């Protein structure tokens, strides 16, 4: 156990060294935790680098506001616990801003707008979650996708550690549908070579309100919050976010 | 001078310590842990009912799933283990090689990887329901360990027994099932009990397969309420209480068996 911890620490040190030397921006380092299993927002590419829309966004924000973002790969399940335990300064991992989360953490200004999308196999006739009563619907543990599934009475919720595993289970026919953020759904069901023939997006769930991604911070961390907000505002003002949208998401 | 009978003790697995039957003192490690766990549980429920009572209402279906996986896996693992153990001592070269290879391969792959493999990699070809996949993976893994337990247990019975039985006209299978195994069982039971408890703890790994066991239910609760400390404290106490009760049961069973033997 001890051994594992030391190894883990060494690895994260090594990774953060590599990442920090490659970052160009100057100024204080802000360590962002990211669950890099959420393409196209944040994921690990063939070179084992953490890339994606959010990563580009934060790097640009850092350049504008004068901080050096360092990305640390953290599993989603427990990512908020790590924030609470001061393992990193902030979370940049497609965290939707919700009322429940606001009670225990602070959020930056929103930087991306999402809805929940319902992915089903291409021969399915389901048009909404209501059509899936008594059936299994997957989502990544404690994401807003899970919350949407649990809201519908009678649908059996199955939670996965990573959304990719839920998609794979859907592909293999163990579950009827997957609910996740729409850019991620589009990435799997429309763009992914392996999945696009067999999966489709049945619906975008209008659960009442639109969701926004924000950078999550420990409550009261005003210094970092200001820097991050400044960066996000600058990126928006310069229209850089549209570039990233084109680069990673299309349309 | 009569030679002292050699008591064969085999120790396989990393299960909870089975309490020693001669340990009758009130202050044993078992009692201390058990009373401690129960007191902790009650104290939390009484003095901090807000998250803990909510938690204890949230977790039971997870406990049931944990038990279902454990019981089905152990039953299947004992069957697999019996045949593997027999295969390992078989004089048929082919059967012997097959059983040994199985043990070698399974023991060389981490259980977590086996779980991923059976669920996701083989899921491509055969659609195994999640629960079944979990049970198959657990029992394939533990079947190999069990095979070693059976092999050691069978080998612990003096060969003279086999010779005597064969000379009385039993065939090989009859010798094994009527003479050797009933005697070997006493040696086999403690390590089987150990494996049982180790398996129960290892079922926490199936939570990665989206099987809603105790740990997964806990993780769901924690990540939605952000009450990590409270949730994992509760989950740990529940696991501890279950394994302590089971280890006591195994030790009682063992005692019964040896008392029966002495008569």
Write structural notes for this entry.
Chain A has 251 residues and is α/β, with parallel strands linked by helices. Chain A has nine helices and 14 strands. Chain A has helices at 2-22, 53-65, 79-84, 99-104, 144-151, 163-171, 182-191, 222-238, 240-249, and strands spanning 29-34, 37-38, 42-44, 50-51, 68-73, 90-96, 106-107, 112-114, 116-121, 136-140, 156-160, 177-181, 199-205, 211-217. In chain A, α2 crosses α8 and α2 runs antiparallel to α9 (240-249). Helix content of chain B is 75%, strand content 0%. Chain A binds chain B through residues 77-78, 80-81, 84, 100, 104, 138, 141-142, 146-147, 158-161, 165-166, 168-169, 172-174, and chain B through 120, 123-124, 127, 129-130, 208, 210, 212, 216, 219-220, 222-224, 226, 228.
Short structural summary:
Chain A is α/β, with parallel strands linked by helices and 251 residues long. In chain A, 40% of the residues lie in helices and 26% in strands. Chain A is globular.
Largest sheet of chain B: none
Radius of gyration of chain B: 21 Å
Order of helices and strands of chain B: HHHHHHHHHH
Number of strands of chain B: 0
Spans of at least 5 consecutive residues with low confidence of chain B: none
> How widely separated are the two ends of chain B?
24 Å
Determine the number of helices of chain A (DSSP H or I, runs of at least 4 residues): 9
Oligomer: heterodimer
Largest interface: A-B, 23 and 17 residues
Total beta-strand segments of chain A: 14
The end-to-end distance of chain A, rounded to whole angstroms, is 47 Å
Q: How confident overall, as mean pLDDT of chain A?
A: 87
Low-confidence region ranges of chain A: 21-25
The number of distinct helices of chain B, counting runs of at least 4 residues, comes to 10
Envelope shape of chain B: flat
Q: Strand content of the residues of chain B, in percent?
A: under 5%
Q: What is the SS-derived class of chain B?
A: mainly alpha
């Amino acid at each position: 156990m001890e051994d594992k911890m030391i190894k883990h620490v060494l690895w994260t040190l090594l990774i953060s060294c590599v990442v920090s030397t490659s970052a160009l921006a100057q100024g204080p380092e802000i360590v962002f935790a990211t669950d890099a299993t959420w393409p196209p927002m944040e994921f690990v590419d063939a070179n084992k680098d953490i890339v994606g829309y959010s990563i580009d966004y934060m790097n640009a924000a850092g350049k504008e506001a004068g901080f050096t973002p360092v990305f640390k790969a953290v599993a989603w399940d427990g990512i908020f616990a790590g924030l609470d335990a001061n393992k990193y300064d902030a979370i940049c991992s497609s965290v939707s801003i919700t009322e429940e989360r606001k009670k225990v953490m602070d959020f930056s200004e929103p930087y991306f707008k999402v809805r929940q999308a319902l992915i089903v196999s291409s021969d399915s006739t389901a048009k909404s979650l209501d059509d899936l009563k008594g059936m299994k619907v997957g989502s990544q543990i404690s994401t807003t996708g899970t919350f949407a599934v649990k809201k519908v009475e009678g649908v059996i919720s199955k939670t996965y550690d990573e959304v990719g595993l839920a998609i794979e289970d859907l592909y293999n026919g163990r579950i009827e549908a997957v609910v996740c953020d729409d850019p991620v759904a589009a990435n799997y069901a429309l763009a992914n070579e392996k999945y696009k023939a067999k999966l489709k997006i049945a619906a975008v769930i209008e659960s009442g309100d639109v969701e926004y991604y924000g950078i999550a911070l420990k409550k009261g961390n005003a210094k970092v919050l200001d820097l991050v907000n400044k960066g996000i505002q600058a990126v928006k003002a310069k229209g850089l976010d549209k570039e990233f949208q084109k680069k990673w998401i299309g349309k | 001078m009569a030679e002292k009978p050699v008591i064969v003790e085999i120790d396989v697995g990393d299960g909870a310590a089975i309490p020693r039957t001669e340990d009758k003192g009130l202050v044993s490690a078992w009692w201390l842990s058990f009373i401690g766990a129960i007191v902790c549980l009650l104290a939390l429920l009484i003095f901090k009912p807000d998250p803990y009572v909510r938690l204890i209402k949230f977790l039971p279906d997870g406990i049931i799933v944990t038990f279902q996986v454990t019981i089905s896996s152990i039953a299947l693992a004992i069957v697999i283990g019996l045949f593997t153990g027999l295969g390992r001592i078989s004089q048929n070269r082919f059967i012997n090689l097959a059983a040994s290879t199985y043990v070698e391969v399974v023991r060389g792959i981490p259980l977590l990887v086996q779980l991923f493999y059976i669920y996701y990699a083989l899921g491509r070809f055969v659609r195994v329901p999640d629960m079944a996949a979990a049970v198959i993976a657990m029992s394939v893994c533990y079947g190999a360990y069990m095979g070693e337990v059976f092999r050691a247990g069978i080998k612990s019975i003096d060969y003279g027994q086999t010779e005597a039985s064969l000379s009385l006209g039993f065939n090989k299978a009859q010798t094994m099932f009527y003479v050797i195994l009933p005697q070997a069982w006493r040696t086999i039971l403690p390590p089987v009990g150990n494996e049982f408890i180790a398996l129960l703890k290892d079922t926490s790994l199936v939570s990665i397969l989206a099987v809603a066991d105790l740990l997964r239910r806990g993780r769901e609760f924690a990540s939605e309420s952000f009450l990590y400390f409270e949730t994992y404290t509760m989950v740990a106490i529940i696991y501890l209480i279950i394994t302590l009760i089971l280890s006591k049961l195994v030790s009682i069973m063992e005692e019964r068996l040896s008392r029966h033997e002495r008569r």
